[in-house]
Amino acid sequence: MKMNSSRVCKIKNIRTLINLVRSDEVGWFEYQGKAIFIGYRNGVDGQGLNRKQRLYKRRRSQGLCVACGKKVEGENRATGKPFKLCDEHRKKSTKREQ
Hints:
2 domains, alpha+beta, 3 helices, 3 strands
């Protein structure tokens, strides 16, 4: 459903409205007499990741602590990947669990 920027597209079915919200459709729509703007996603990149998810993923791949960004010493023997947290934050998280 393509639109002109000056037009408001009328929607009669709620399913159509839900599908438009889930898609990448941008523009003004009217549903039950109310004007709705769809298409603005705050802080989400092309892969659907927000800022925190991107930071977590980048730190994990570089072998940095996801909490503070320090270089992580040691690795998980089962997976061979560096730990997610540095020694300090791993101690804090294990104290909370006990």
